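User: Could you check the structure of this?
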Amino acid sequence: MTLFKRKKKDRKKSWLRELIWTIVIVVAARAFLLEPFTIPSGSMMPNLLIGDYLFVNKWRYGWCKHSFVFSLPLLPGRVFGSAPVAGDTVVFRLPSDLNVHYVKRLIGVPGDRVQVKDGIVFLNGKPLKQKEVESYNIRSAVGYDKPARAFIEELPNGKSYKILRADYGKDTRANNTEEFVVPEGHYFFLGDNRDNSADSRFSLGFVSEELIVGTPFLVFLSVNESILDLLKVSEWSKNVRLERFFSFVGDI
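Assistant: Sure, the predicted structure tokens are below.
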């Protein structure tokens, strides 16, 4: 009887150790390797869509205290990794609310001068190349469809990506800005959906390098409304975007 109790107690301890180690591994992986996020807005259309569920690569840019839940002060500054470059899609914490994450396109690095004129981005005094490729309909902030045009925009470093421009008029604040000079240790971000993005042109301002979390690299699920749509098998044809499942962000 005593031997039976001892074995039962050993099994319980073994199960508890396995549980603790599982929790440690999951927390460590989330902090240092991959973290799941969902896209709640259309500011990065047409490349990232509302209802995309994706993994963020957290080792590419290294780690800092904001890499951890609750921004625990476990690291002095940013360690390891490399600096992001213009054209990268970057996830970062919102400067005004560290509990909120944003995803935007990096346009200006420290020392760059960035300005938008008539919807064209000027980087260090030179306009970025834009080539129109197709037309779109996008849902506006007040809930109606708005015609838009899609362009391939190219940066001086050769990186290119698709953006959307809607016709809200040339004199809008989004299409014509002051010149921004990116300070040391900070970055300038724009949304790919240029006329529907709260980014560095507005209240977001410059983003400190210490707030950078990582870069999205894989869309593992994509649904039109919520992840609960996956349970409505009969509605998959209109609610679930199967073609985006397990798509690398750079290939979308």
